[in-house]
Structure formats: C-alpha cells, structure tokens
Amino acid sequence: MDACPLPTDRPVAITVNCGSSNILCFGVYLPCDDCSPEYLHVLANIFGFIESVTESNPSCSCIVLGDFNFACCNTNRGFREFLPLANDLGLVACDDLDV
Question: In angstroms, rounded to a whole number, what is the distance separating the alpha carbons of residues 46 and 38?
C-alpha cells in the first residue's frame, strides 16, 4: 500500500492477507457530532482517506471497524455522510449483530 497522508490521527489502515484474499481493515474513531461545520470537515477527511486507500488497492475487500459515534440511521448526520462511501464499498452495517 502506498503511503497516504492521514487527515487526522483518527483512521488507520492495514492489509490482512487471508490465503488468496486480501482485506483492507480500517480502524476509525469518529468524533461526536457537536453540530459544528468542523465535524463535517473531519468526517470528509477521514472518509476521503478511506476512499483513497481503497482506490489504491482495488483487489482488496474492505472492512471499516471502530467507534463511529453515531447510530446507523438516517436521523444521524454522521451516518448520512458515511452512507455514500458505505454504498460505494458495498459495506453492510452490523450493529444489529451485537448481542
């Protein structure tokens, strides 16, 4: 993977080799929504980092893990910002799998 400048200290990316498959694993710690414009700016930087790394590694599957600090529903501004990237990467929310 090429080195990409991190937008903040929040995201990390590693590649896990599983036999013939490669998986990009992202760890994120998103800020809480404080209703400020800066919140959206930080999210855009983090999501841009994820997009950039996935575009540089097209043969990898992708997992995004961590603390999103929002529920996965349309009433949350952070989720609405994340949804286009999640759709582009074919990600599925797994919140309801936690028992």
Answer: 12
pTM of the model: 0.84
Residue 60 makes CB contacts below 8 A (sequence gap 6+) with: 15, 22, 23, 24, 54
Mean pLDDT of successive 10-residue stretches along the chain, which has 99 residues: 50 92 94 93 94 95 94 93 95 79
DSSP 27: E
| Angstrom distances, CA of residue 37 to CA of 52, 84, 97 | 23, 19, 32
d(C-alpha 48, C-alpha 43), whole Å? 8
